[in-house]
Amino acid sequence: MSRLKQVFENKKAFIPFITAGDPSLKITEELVLKMAEAGADLIELGIPFSDPVAEGPVIQEADYRALAGGTTTDKIFDSVSNIRRTCNVPLAFMTYANPVFTYGTERFMKACKELDVSAVIIPDIPFEEKDEIIPYSSKYGVEFISMIAPTSLSRIQKISKEATGFIYCVSSMGVTGVRQDIGNKVEEMIKVVKEVKDIPCAIGFGISKPEQAAEMIKYSDGVIVGSAIVKIIGQYGENCVPHVVEYVRNMKKAITF
Amino acid sequence: MSKGRFGIHGGQYIPETLMNAVNELEKSYNYFKNDEKFVTELNELFQNYAGRPSIIYYAEKMSKDLGGAKIYFKREDLNHTGSHKINNVLGQVLLAKYMGKTRVIAETGAGQHGVATATAAALLGLKCEIFMGKEDTERQALNVYRMELLGAKVHAVTSGTQTLKDAVNETMREWTNRVHDTHYVLGSVMGPHPFPTIVRDFQSIIGIEVKKQILEKEGRLPDVLMACVGGGSNAIGLFYDFIDDLGVRLIGCEAAGHGVDTEKTAATMTLGTVGIFHGMKSYFCQDEYGQIAPVYSISAGLDYPGVGPEHANLKDLRRAEYVAITDDEAVEAFEYLSRIEGIIPAIESSHAVAYAKKLAPTMDKDKIIVICLSGRGDKDVAAIARYKGENIYE
Fold first, then answer.
1. Cβ-defined contact of A102 to B290 (cutoff 8 Å)
2. How many domains does chain A have?
3. pLDDT, tens digit, 9 for 90 and up, residues A127-144
4. Cβ of A102 and B286 within 8 Å?
5. Which of A57, A103, A153 is opposite residue B290, by nearest beta carbon?
6. How large is the ipTM?
């Protein structure tokens, strides 16, 4: 069974996101190990980008901090290699088209396979441009995760039909970031997906509180939380690990019945 | 290959949230560009509001002074709002109105595109918000006031390098937040399909007029066309109608800043490599890991790390040439044109003037150069004065 299948097998998945290298790669390694112990089912590692157009201010700042600290794609790969010595938690990379393309898409996917990274999430590669990635990701057994948004409407069917791994359901309009009100479109979106294909659906964008996660998990197979965690990291810096662990534990509890 | 390709360049590299918006835009544009009412109304606006056709001017003194080719200026600086930007915004804001949108947003570098967008929005009755890098709001403070005067709300962008690329990022973020009633009036031939095509089509009036005007004056096509290139909209506007006229050399002048061998440069064509950013595949100034480089130019309008995909393809095809002009050369040309012809050019356009000063003397007297004077220099006067050591503030 592939790592990604494990993530959603007989359970609801909690999927935290952190920006690799924020505040340092050493802390990133520690965070991954400890979040896995605290119940994270899949961890999204952000490869920082100078111009993250799909991110709100919280993750933008994290990207700037990581890059200012000298984080590079190669150094992140080294860190994942360190993580893999002791930990087999499923991992996905989240980044933008340019860091992958400029690294060499094939070389990037080959590294993912070697590091046992199951999936890539690239918000500026929509359905129409997926041939930029898929010939290489599929060659190395890496899942390219499709995204759907509240504006996708009739696109949901065609996207779902060709989706693999899981579908990243963008809960609301706009960029990543904590929201008070997540809206109700996502339930309908997931219904449409499930009519077309039996594929896990995870909801991201805006979720920060256990109550929100508990609500969202009613319609979905997993919840993705980024900004709320990155905010904790930004607040506590080098001392963030216990705070993040506690948060992850509470969120996992909120979606476990 | 996906839609909107120029060779390998172009495409639609944007978040899913925006895909239906750009698809709707493409569909609407393809419909309205052939709609008689839309075309008539746009032509009316071009003639009776923007002042088209803009004149072509023979710079006799400059030509004689340089002692080579005859130099003509296509005077886009004489358009309403003082630059070529009005051509694109009248087209796009009118299109937005026909699409039923009630609000437009736009990025701006020097402020020319922001002012033009605010102008068109005021005229056509749409709400308008402009995103401008904080550094640029300081470099071009008067343009901020102009936009506000025209009823627009101006947001100073504090993320990243606080310049044009960050203004584009922030406008894209705002668009993902609110697409249903909002059109993003992209200011150059860049971004995801269909923007590079739409903006080029609205700007191509420049080259179409030049062809007609130069045939009337000289009875033949020019030997060289020259324009400054940031994203590249005035250049593609000038070049487009001449792409199949292989005897006409097309030269884009980009910003070298302090020099292409320094860190302080924006010379994308000279130094850039192929990448994917701001919705398109094209050339970008970036590092080996694909991080977009902080670029620099004295000109806020050329201070951009990428270039439009159609230019990238014209470079690949070797149909157009691209040269880099330093701040010093551009400032020198700015002063030169002011003195010799009594025309104060925008610092952006001065990059093209600077290259003409190098090229014209090497050409025979019967040769013809047409330069797109894309904007007027009033907005730059205080900044150039300070560059020259004067203590003048707006």
1. yes
2. 1
3. 999 999 999 999 999 999
4. yes
5. A103
6. 0.96
